[in-house]
Design brief:
With 312 residues, this protein is α+β, with helices and mostly antiparallel strands. It has helices at 3-22, 39-42, 64-79, 106-114, 123-128, 131-138, 149-158, 163-191, 194-215, 226-230, 239-248, 253-276, 287-296, 301-304, and strands at residues 31-34, 59-62, 84-85, 88-89, 102-105, 141-144. It folds into two domains: 3-158, no CATH class; 163-304.
């Protein structure tokens, strides 16, 4: 059973009644769910996930004012819930915001992942916050939505990256793919610098993965889950196989030629998608031309005038 299913069952079996009976005064403010770090919050958990931080539990999100008044009582009530459920044991409790489950202060939760603890969530947050942090703040499942600040910010995050920021990031990654995959890789191979050539491939692949997530307007998770998450994406998710091959095969003369063909195929597919989404007016698969064309479509002057690679 997936971690989100365990969490929901645990909440419905014990947590729901606990909150309704003991905290009716603030029940409308409370949001309950499973959100944050951990493979189970993304639905990526498996048997290997059971070796650490895997337990029956859920998150209780309250604004700081509600926590100041009810926090101790909430933590005490949560600590009294059954210590074992469906054969899984709960871990020792940590103070508020020190664990992945239990009572969490909304402002501290978002400050941890976004660097802010209040509205508005502006372009700078989306441009400079690591995408894996955005993914952690946006993932999981809500079992009970409250009327507090938690759901306000979550709704903004779930709308995806603002259009101009998405274009800025796409342009930056296009410039990096042009430099690493379409230009430097073959030059490094020609020089016999196979180690550096492989680094160029890694840079190309990293930016290509980020690009696929952006084309889906989805937040890229932490690198170890990037390929896993790609497989479920409807737009160019199938590139996961080709991108994996680029990092797995060597750099002999024949293999280098094969890699350059793969890079060319990936470029054509991605640039066709730029055109389909009206992100670029370039008529070729040169990432450099597409990077500048995407930049030209950014409406926000401040974003458009940043360095071409800003935001990658």
């Amino acid at each position: 059973m997936k971690g989100i299913e365990v969490s929901l069952k645990y909440y419905l079996s014990f947590g729901k009644k606990m909150l309704e009976d003991g905290f009716s005064d603030i029940i409308d403010n409370i949001t309950v769910g499973l959100v944050g770090e951990g493979s189970e919050c993304f639905g990526f958990d498996d048997e290997i996930s059971y070796d650490h931080d895997f337990e029956p539990g859920f998150c209780i999100f309250v604004d700081h004012k509600a926590y100041d008044k009810y926090g101790f009582a909430l933590e005490r009530a949560y600590s009294k819930l059954p210590k074992e459920f469906l054969g899984l044991k709960r871990q020792p409790l940590a103070p508020a915001d020190g664990a992945r489950h239990g009572v969490m202060v909304t402002e501290k939760f978002y400050e941890r992942f976004l660097g802010i603890n209040d509205l508005p969530v502006d372009n700078k947050v989306f441009l400079y916050t690591p995408t894996f942090s955005l993914a952690c703040a946006d993932n999981g499942k809500i079992f009970k939505a409250g009327d507090g600040k938690f759901m306000e910010i979550r709704k903004i995050l779930q709308a995806g990256c603002p259009d101009d920021v998405r274009k800025k990031k796409l342009a930056a990654h296009a410039a990096l793919m042009a430099q690493s995959g379409q230009y430097n890789y073959k030059r490094l191979i020609a020089r016999g610098e196979t180690g550096a050539a492989q680094l160029a491939v890694f840079e190309f692949v990293k930016s290509a993965i980020s690009t696929v997530y952006l084309l889906n307007n989805s937040y890229e998770p932490f690198y170890k889950w990037a390929y896993r998450g790609m497989r479920a994406l409807p737009v160019l998710g199938e590139l996961e196989t080709a991108l994996s091959n680029l990092t797995e095969i060597g750099n002999s003369k024949k293999q280098a030629e094969e890699k350059q063909e793969i890079i060319g195929d990936i470029a054509r597919l991605i640039c066709s998608e730029y055109a389909r989404q009206n992100l670029s007016d370039a008529k070729n698969s040169d990432f450099s031309d597409n990077a500048f064309s995407i930049t030209d479509k950014i409406k926000d002057n401040n974003l458009r005038n940043l360095h071409i690679m800003e935001g990658a």
